[in-house]
Amino acid sequence: MASLFLPLVLRNLDSLIRNEVGLLWGVDEEMKKLKSTLSTIKAVLEDAERKQLQDKAIQNWLRELNDAAYEADDILDDCATEALRFESKGQSSGSLKKKVITCLLTFNPIENIMFRHKIGNRIKDITVKFDAIVANRKFHLHEEAVEKRVEYAESRETSSFITQPELYGRDEDKEKIVKVLVEDVCDSEDVSVYPIIGIGGLGKTTLAQMVFNDERVERHFEPKIWVYVSQDFDVKTMIKAIIRSASGEVSQDLDLGSLHKTLQDKLNGKRYLIVLDDVRNDDQKKWVNLKYLLACGSKGASIVVTTRLETVASIMGTIPSHHLSFLSDEDCWMLFRHVVIFQEQ
After folding, report:
1. Contact of 24 with 101, CB cutoff 8 Å
2. CA–CA separation, 172 and 104 (whole Å)
3. CATH 3.40.50.300: which residues of the chain?
4. Is the dihedral of CA 333, 338, 341, 342 positive or negative?
5. What's CA 87's distance to the chain center, in Å?
6. 111-122 residue pLDDT tens
7. What's the pLDDT score for residue 91?
């Protein structure tokens, strides 16, 4: 879906801009304009995807957007590949920027000029295409996006309580995760972070709930803490949510130092388990800061992260991620039967 892929395109584009790749090839302004256009679209994307079930025009708009996003990603991939090719040719030491400059001045200048001209035109063309998509947005999405996002976040909020009595097709997943938490990392000195990754609707949250409430996990960890994260990965907000889940108390502290002290009082020297459900923010600095504050537990203290994004898993994980696959046909049929019977009751 576009809502998952477009942010990835934006991150790739931002990385190229930060590395000054566009500047070296004379397409920096085009890249920045493309980034601005994509950011405008991203701001209304969640609202559009919520409304698409009731509006065929929005479905077509999202389909058109998705196709353009893949095209943009191909262009950025060619930029990154060319940069790596130049880097591998460069004999100078130092930054990627220095190596690319050396290659631009040394190796086949005609080829370099042709690539700069070609990639510049492709970026301009895809920007024009995205601008046309923005201009075709006649659904009043932007005006409602901020309000609706808050409402949607509240409706999506999860808890540790099991909401489904059966976990079809996930027994092996559950057993593997429990084993890792209870046996494999029980002697680890540092807090272990175990990502569960998969696309929306595969049952990451339900699986985490089943693990969280498993009797072996109940006996092994104290305290057990559940925090629904989504986009709101502010360090202070996260600490307050952890304190509230651990004690049932709402912290009135405003400064980070007081919050840290309260957090340590709750977790210091304890083999805790924290589930961070539906993490979507991949700001590495925020995560490093939070992890530092959580490094106060005993051996075997663990954090389980559920996420849709590989970037989140790679940034946060300290052990290999658990990837959820699609259910088998038999398990899908069992789940379907359960839903039908439940609705008839």
Report:
1. yes
2. 53
3. 158-344
4. negative
5. 29
6. 556 666 787 788
7. 43
